[in-house]
Amino acid sequence: MLSKWFNKKVKTLPFNALIEKEAEEAELNIYSPTWKYIIKWQEERLIAERGKNDAPHHNSDQTAYIRGRISILKDLAELPKDAGRKRPGLMSRPSAETGE
């Protein structure tokens, strides 16, 4: 009688699908201690990167790299404003037709 329970095959999702499903269902709580920590870190890094960007001794590639980091740090702070916007999951690939 128990053999039917042990022989039953269970369909499982691949790990990537589990992460993506969890990310789609998650909500950003801007009042959480974790988010406050992230924003504090982001502000400190942004100040440091802006300081690096102001230094005169960087070549154009270094300056572009630093500006890219600054842009990413700014995007991080904008996450709460984008919370309602539908985005592809973390593990998804861009669509060939739309680029999204």
Structure write-up:
- By secondary structure, the protein is mainly α.
- It is 59% helix and 0% strand.
- The termini are far apart.
- The model has no long low-confidence stretch (mean pLDDT 77).
Tag the structure with descriptive keywords:
mainly alpha; 5 helices; elongated
The number of strands is 0
Radius of gyration: 21 Å
- How many helices? 5
Q: What would you call the shape?
A: elongated
Average of pLDDT: 77
Describe the main β-sheet briefly.
Answer: none
Range of strand content: under 5%
One letter per element, helices H and strands E, the order comes to HHHHH
User: What separation lies between the terminal Cα atoms?
Assistant: 51 Å
Give the low-confidence spans: none
Q: Strand pairing plus helix content: what structural class?
A: mainly alpha
What is the helix fraction of residues, given as a range?
55-70%
Brief account:
The chain contains five helices and no strands. It is mostly helical.
Describe the protein's topology:
Blueprint: H1 3-6, H2 15-25, H3 33-54, H4 60-77, H5 79-82
Helix pairs in contact: 3-4
